[in-house]
Amino acid sequence: MSLADWQQRLEQHFEQLRKQRTGSVGNQPIFALEHGLSSEELAQLRQNIHAHIQSALPLKGHALPWVVYAAEMGYRYSGDEYWQTFEAETPRWTLFGSRTWIRRRFEEFHARFGGAKPTGRWAEWFTNICWPITHAILPKDLQRQLAKILYENRHAFSRELFDAPERLGALIAARSLNASTRFRKLAQQPLLLGQIATALLLEDRDDAKSLILPSTLRRIATDLERERQSKIWLSAARHITATRLRAQGGIPRPAAAGAPATPAPESHPAKPELGLEPRMIAKPTGAKTFDLYAEIPNLAPLLIRFPELSDILNGSRCIVAGAAGAPLWQSRVLRGTQLVRLATWPAANEPLFRFERSHPTLEYVLSAESFRRPGDQWLFRIATDGLAYEMRSLNVRAGGNYLLLRSDPFADPIEETNVVALNCTGVHGLQFSVPAAVSDTWIQRLKALVLDHAKTLEIWPAGTPPAAWDGEARVEWLTTDIPVLAVRSDHPLEDMAVLVDGNEWSRIQFGRVPAGKTHFMEFPELPTGSHRVTFRLQASDRRLGHETIHLSVVIREPHEWTPGVTAQGAFIVLSDPPTPTLEQLWEGRVAIEIHGPNGRQVSGSITLYERGTDHPLTQVVLPPLQLPATGAQWEEYFGKYVRGNKSVASCYDMAQACVVEINADELGRFRLECEREFEPVRWALRRGPECYHAKVVSDRGEDKSLSVVHYAMAHPESPEVLDAAADGYDVPLGGGLYTATADDFTRSILVPPFQIRSFQDLKVKSEIDIRDPSVTHLLELLAAAERWASARMAGADLLASIQIRDRVVDALLRAIASGIVGGNWHREEDIYRRRSDPGALPRLCEAIATRNPEKGFASVIERDVASLAELPISARVSRLNALCGKFIGMSNAWLVEFALRLSSGCVREWAAANLEKGITDLQKRPILLRAARAVVLGVDACITQAANDVGPAYAGWKWE
User: Fold this and answer.
1) Which domains does the chain have, with CATH numbers?
2) pLDDT in tens, 462-507
3) Where does 469-563 have alpha helices with state H?
4) Can you tell me the distance from the alpha carbon of 353 to that of 371, in angstroms, rounded to the nearest whole number?
5) Is the pTM higher than 0.90?
6) How far does CA 48 lie from the centroid of its chain?
């Protein structure tokens, strides 16, 4: 067949597919991979394409064969350079072909046949490659990850999600916390992801076949099932999905794109009972001493109902009111329940937990469910495990052990009770045990404590053991459980009725209930969240009247257990961020804590992998590490045995991924996979025999859209524009900064000198022109400072690169300050830098001001620098602003923060459109910038950085 014949056949196929899909599920997109060709036909199409491109330009009249060809190439894509592979496998493409030409054919396919259109930030970055990758539906390297995510979240799937594939895709995207960077890029297209998941999970249903061509779906499923573990995951996910959908009323029918599916949850529901109420737990630490903990629930169920909260819950720390320690790291609230020790009892009017970043929906949900229980006393039942769990009522039962907490001290001691010490301010405790036979004396004691004796109805979970049970009024089951309750009355009842959430349809009518007889009742399938079960009782003795008892039933998803990362296990490894990139790991921007039995040793290894291969570049077996290990101890350990290992450092710049494994034998294993950040433009650096060699790798646009600039350390603000070089660039022996830009995307790498024999080789002398004080020139210097500060570090000689970076950034910021304030300030900073210790600060502070009362301002700054170093950055801003108001008659918190940010090199993004205004205002108030520079340099000198710290150029100035 000729390409013209292929074009005609594919036109007929896609036109028919468009009609079928529109008629069955509405305006759902189609994909080029749904071409319907056999493997033999694909081989023939490739031969025809190769034969044509040998001697001629690709023709618009052959668009569909090329679209299919490019999509097939995308299906085999594994994160390697797509266009490099395309060009290597397509003879003479570099002579006759064009990446833009391929993109335009896909755009025409979208317009004519309703083909899928790439969306999200990934598509904005990769304007060409996004089309064939999207139309490949699910490249092979992502198939295993999707199967795993579908398996882990199988209990969250519901009919409502399958009604609207985009919502299902948003849920999967929110749950792709541990997936690779490439998968998270794919997840930026929730409709595509939801379509794929729906088709895979409902493989034998007619509705599934209408979403993706059956032959294409079988192909993807077959490739998935070739890998044993993926087959197991997918099979289990399908089974649970089918079971749940049968219970929920059959298989859904996907809605048309853009049409309202099953109504989405309201962003502000009237009563969002999601089972997120925190619980208090008391843990004994001595005979009469307790620690208090807040049990923060797993917030993963929130993502089912509100997938738009994914960025907040994954990327923002959780602040617990009254916590004894630091905020919970990012995404920990999605990894099961979290126990947080309390140093102060939370106030009644503040949420028990909140997030550093805000969202209206999240604020509303938390305001409804995240407060501690109201009142001025709280009852805890002491369980057989020794822990005391908060109860929802103030009712005690015969034979129970209890802990009573009050906001006020217990004034009068009560017989057979013991006052206990709580390691938490703002609350007081009393411990007691209720005898098996409750006497009148005990009833009076309970009344004195404002407690009641529960005697009418006993309720307890039966059958499958619940995930949690407080012994009185709250029980928690998993979605995989069958909830069963047992009830027994200690006196005869004329009638007993049970309702769920107040709905009459759920009423269970028992009629007469004799005293002492146990009744069992099984609940229908309950959705995830909190439910209120009401017992309406009518005693046989009508003088006792009616009684209503409430039980809280919480249904939640099971949390998949993974060795080493359980929320409260014996061996816990925490990573912040949870899925770091290779660059973040190497440059020390990842905090890893390892918790376990004191003194226990764990082993580990680090393995680096090259792009496009499963064979390791290098592997290092790490020496034993003693537990527990703090973030600082891990960083020192990693710096010494990994970053300081020359064989590893020499492979770093060639590596695509790094696997960290920590083994605690029977306690579990932890595995952290760090991939290099997937970007439109990146640098690859190799060390040759005589110099470093830097190469730009770009999968975005044509080569002509790429510009490369070199900045020498001697003149860090002066660009040297380099000609395009496909083979890369030999770096001068002195190193420098290389910047590659494709359209609006830029990436830089700092290359150290080729030979570093002593500290003398690190003494960079940057000559910066400060004769031009114009705002334009100052903005150019500021852009240069932030360019150097944000550059990626080369793997080799990392510490040397950091020191060079800090010196260059400092020189640029000194030049900016001198350009704004004028005078001799540049010389004074040079003198200070030559000494570089707190003792050099007095002379620098003297240069801040020469007149009264401004001299007093300078004296106070010199005096307070040490105390400022101990404060958070926000408090330093407030303190300096207060001093400005007192001594120089100016109180402007924004301008003060601007001055401090400018002095520490982190201002452009923060100030945004007000950047020029800020510089102009400082030119009118130069004393403020001099003071800010003195504060930044003084705090930097006071704070001792670890030897391998890879933070900003100035210690203590990590702006949020």
Assistant:
1) 3-135 (no CATH), 140-247 (no CATH), 272-455 (no CATH), 572-675 (2.60.40)
2) 877 787 787 777 888 887 788 888 888 877 788 888 888 877 767 7
3) none
4) 8
5) no
6) 47
